[in-house]
Amino acid sequence: MYRPKTTLEQWRILQAVVDHGGYAHAAAKLNKSQSSLNHAVAKLQSQLNVQLLEVKGRKAFLTEAGEVMLRRSRHLTQNVQELEFLAENINQDWEPEITVALDLAYPRELFYPALKAFHPQSRGSRLKIIDTVLTGTEEAITDGWADIVITGTVPKGYLGEPIAELYFIAVCHAEHPLAALPSPIDANELLHHLQLVIKDTSQSPNEKQGWLRSEQRWTVSHFNTAIELMLQGQGFCWLPTHTVEQHIVSGDLVKLEIQGSTFRKLVAWLVHPNPDTLGPGSKLLSELILAHRQIHNECAEREQRPEEN
């Protein structure tokens, strides 16, 4: 079994000498005698049989070999620090891993600012973000496999906080036959055209949402795939406005005005499947998501809704 020749304390002393520009300043910073630092670095060089520092005047400078060794030593001491921090977090019930089930319809630009704010406070917790759709999102709640769920529906027996209002609209290519029909389009006209559907991520999907009457249906796993197909002239699809807005503005896709159902409104909710056992990391991330919800809602008040366009 390999036994290290050096200690972490020796590497920390070397780092301090370099970072503070010499033995005197490093000794004051570490509250140690200058002679003890000199001895520690000298012993480190002797054990490695490599010269790491050379003194010029009153300052110590790294050799080329010292630069390489110092850089690698920083990874070593950082890893040890994170390992000890993780042990402390576990003792304080801070979760080593947090799982978020994120409904595909929820705009990522609303979620990412919360992640950015969470990272420096995350204490090294790993974050697992799983894209889910429809029943698959509900199962993350009812099966309890996620710590935080952002969903379009709150199952019976659970509570949620509303965090955004989303709008789904029917769209197709500007040259698709449906785009040439006079508005509003009779919903029966849709029966004769290819419908693109986003795949439910559940193992046992329950098709209880949306218009699914077309006999010709292609199922895809992501909004981007549906958009790419429509840009090729294939089919129509109900999609969140934020995913197709730029293509509508460019004129590549058009919004279909359908009699009785121009758009669908969806409220996104933040749900804790197991609120009684929610860890401090999950609580912090939830608070940041809710904080950014307030920012979004203030902005949303100044924007027009789809039906007002």
Automatic annotation (TrEMBL):
Fetch the InterPro entries from UniProt: LysR_HTH_N, LysR_subst-bd, WH-like_DNA-bd_sf, WH_DNA-bd_sf
Q: Which UniProt keywords apply?
A: DNA-binding, Transcription, Transcription regulation
- List each copy of the HTH lysR-type domain by range: 6-63
Stated name of the protein: LysR family transcriptional regulator
In the record, the note on similarity to other proteins reads:
Belongs to the LysR transcriptional regulatory family.
Top-rank taxon of the source lineage equals Bacteria
Q: Which organism is it from?
A: Bowmanella denitrificans
Does this entry carry the keyword Transcription regulation?
A: yes
Q: What PANTHER family does the annotation carry?
A: HTH-TYPE TRANSCRIPTIONAL REGULATOR (PTHR30126), TRANSCRIPTIONAL REGULATOR-RELATED (PTHR30126:SF88)
